[in-house]
């Protein structure tokens, strides 16, 4: 049956991505400029699409595959995050990241599957992306935060996961700041330079994958025998399509699909000089998550820069304004000064935002969308590990494989629908505001 799928929201330059800017210039993009035929087209060059294209190529080495990205691979959300490949439960809508024992165990299994897959590619292909298996700290600034960490630790104990408590002096010895009261160290998290990882994953794809960037799919139609993907300057004709467009897949109006594009923001300092490094103290590199999911995520990088992430904003039009970026930068500056008063001269060099794809019930879309069209969409804030897993597994599913993890993803809840706009806008914005307000000192 003939049908059409129209794309209405495209990636916009939401601030300046510090990870991308600190890499050498990317080689020129190869864009879609003619009509070409492929067995498979994967839409979206984030972590999910990169893993889907790789896995298709591994399992079907004779198939021709195209991966298409509207912007540059590494410059969009998958290359503009804080770089945490989180293995443990991380439900950012819960006050302590945990859910039930069963749900937490299932999340850990899936997330480790994704991390193991990407780590093996990074090692095998020698991708230079500062991949570190050094774990993460969950830190609290007051009693409320400590109570949340205690709850999280109880959840970890229930599912048999390791952790270690640090007191105020212990976490100060790592971070150089006496801002935090206590912390939980969990060893399984990996961290990366995300833009370098995405570029490296794209550059090392198997030979049967053609990569097109600066090529936004405008629409897909089914002419009965193939899918026709249209671009500004060309067409790709495919037997099968895999959609990995995350927040850009959110729909509103008559048929809302329950996916919520919620932006979060980050800033990166300039590199500290030797004097500033000495004044800060602590260890050379560390990665810290706040006790309250709405608080500030902080990383100290081997490049002697510090990265701060906080603040959320519901932006259904998938664009942030200059006012959003100015507000985010001032919140980041305040968080930075509270933690690092000894670094008052260290400026925030870059500030940017990117869309998460959330849903009110932590649901996501995975599986067959229509004949010959598959989708893996809905990162729920944890796209690095979950996106790696769901990208790999959607390729396996589309090729007819079956396993426990595929079934787990097929059985996850669909994103719950929302009230129509503008009621949804008001409800989501108010919920974010209340949660941020309650995070208080953790910001
Ligand atoms: C500041 C910040 C910090 C974060 N920190 C973390 C973290 O530490 N750990 C973590 O796990 N997650 C983090 N996230 C979330 C994480 O970045 C996302 O979950 C992840 O990027 C999702 O990957 P994805 O491939 O599914 O989607 P995306 O990365 O959004 O990729 C989708 C791609 O599809 C492309 N696209 C969309 N429409 C089209 C079209 N019509 N044609 C062609 N291409 C199209 C987009 O340009 C985009 O590149 C953070 C996000 C932000 C913004």
Automatic annotation (TrEMBL):
Pfam families: DAO
Gene3D superfamilies, alphabetized: D-Amino Acid Oxidase, subunit A, domain 2, FAD/NAD(P)-binding domain
Domain FAD dependent oxidoreductase: 39-396
Class of enzymatic activity (EC top level): oxidoreductase
The protein's Enzyme Commission number: 1.-.-.-
GO molecular function, one term: oxidoreductase activity
Keywords, ordered alphabetically: Oxidoreductase
Name of the protein described by the UniProt record: NAD(P)/FAD-dependent oxidoreductase
Organism for this UniProt entry: Paraburkholderia phenoliruptrix
